Amino acid sequence: MNAARIEVLAPGAYASVQDRGRRGFRRIGVPWAGVLDPRLMRIANALVGNPETHAVIECFDGGLVLLAHGGPIRVAVAGDAVVELEVAGERRPLPPWRSTMLADGDQLRIRKLLAGGRIAVVAIEGLALPETLGSVSTYARAVLGGVDGRALAAGMQLPVVSHGEGVDRVLRHVPLTDPSPIRVVLGPQADHFSAAALHTLISADYRISTEADRMGIRLEGPALEHAGTREIVSDATVPGSIQVPGNGQPIVLLADAQTAGGYPKIATVISADLPRLAACRPGQILRFARVAAFEAEESARRAEAETRALIDAIRPLLPDGIDLDTLYSVNLVGGVVHALSPEHRPQWWPVD
């Protein structure tokens, strides 16, 4: 076992340490925080051999640069990202969705995120940070978790207990981008809106505004008309709640959002689709579709089954990147027969 560390040379647009979140404290006003896309966290951790909910680095839109000290340190990037590995000053591309070993002095660089989304996750084997209220997740507004309760910044050091053993792994089937509408369940204050507003929500186009972060996403589009008062006595919210303030422009709450609020909530984004919404870029157009609660539950079960299948299909890589399981599963040479099989002997073959 090897004591090592990762230094943040550049945090990019925004990077933070996150895990599954800080559960069980919303009743006292502590948000979950945690990764915006749990599937990425689970895949990245599986690639490096961590428990699936181990703390990871979540980043947006590229620019993150990490430096290994005292390696070897195994890392993996999950997400539709352009990744580079710098060794002895020489940069070379590194595919995402696989693990690799960083030696002392190597750099991992996420140059940019592609059209598939704006979130990537970096798993580090043996990342060792203390928990606060049962979680390592960074909630910067309350200075909780992560490194000093803050988003990552240049010069921060992340301690690692790295084994430096075993082989690297690859995800055999990359998740595909789903372009379908974002599904919602109406309520809990749908009765605070006119019938026209409910129809508009599921029929109109909405644009992701520039006011989009880990707390929530403000949408731009047709105003949603309140049927009565534009505010309510503050009550509970959850990630996925769609609040509608007085201007009628909806706000979708995400992991770092407050635990209660005074704007009526017209609907809630289902858990299976919330990561897709969180990954949308400013300027992107989306639509909503209404589903029943039982359909949302079925979608959650399907999403979990798909994630489990992806993780179960992760396979070892040879040091040069060859996936042996894939190689052996394909008939590389066809039409080969045994020369001594009577049914395949040519006419000129001598009789026994």
What order do the helices and strands come in, and which of them pair?
Blueprint: E1 2-11, E2 14-18, H1 38-48, E3 56-60, E4 64-69, E5 73-78, E6 81-87, E7 90-94, E8 99-102, E9 107-113, E10 119-124, E11 157-162, E12 169-170, E13 182-186, H2 195-201, E14 206-212, E15 216-220, E16 235-236, E17 241-243, E18 251-253, E19 260-261, E20 265-269, H3 274-278, E21 285-286, E22 288-290, H4 293-312, E23 315-316, H5 324-329
Parallel strand pairs: 13-22
Antiparallel strand pairs: 1-4, 1-11, 2-3, 3-10, 4-9, 5-8, 5-10, 6-7, 6-9, 12-23, 13-20, 14-15, 14-21, 15-18, 16-19, 17-18, 17-20
Q: Care to describe what's here?
A:
It holds the Pfam family CT_A_B. The protein is 14% helix and 31% strand. It has an 8-stranded mixed β-sheet with strand order 21-14-15-18-17-20-13-22. The chain has a 6-stranded antiparallel β-sheet with strand order 7-6-9-4-1-11, with no helix packed on it. Strands 2-3-10-5-8 form a 5-stranded antiparallel β-sheet. It folds into 2 domains: 2-170, no CATH class; 182-290, Cyclophilin. It is elongated. The longest helix is centred in the last third of the chain and has 20 residues, at 293-312. Strand 6 (81-87) and strand 7 form a beta hairpin. The protein has helices at residues 38-48, 195-201, 274-278, 293-312, 324-329, and strands at residues 2-11, 14-18, 56-60, 64-69, 73-78, 81-87, 90-94, 99-102, 107-113, 119-124, 157-162, 169-170, 182-186, 206-212, 216-220, 235-236, 241-243, 251-253, 260-261, 265-269, 285-286, 288-290, 315-316. With 352 residues, it is α+β, with helices and mostly antiparallel strands.
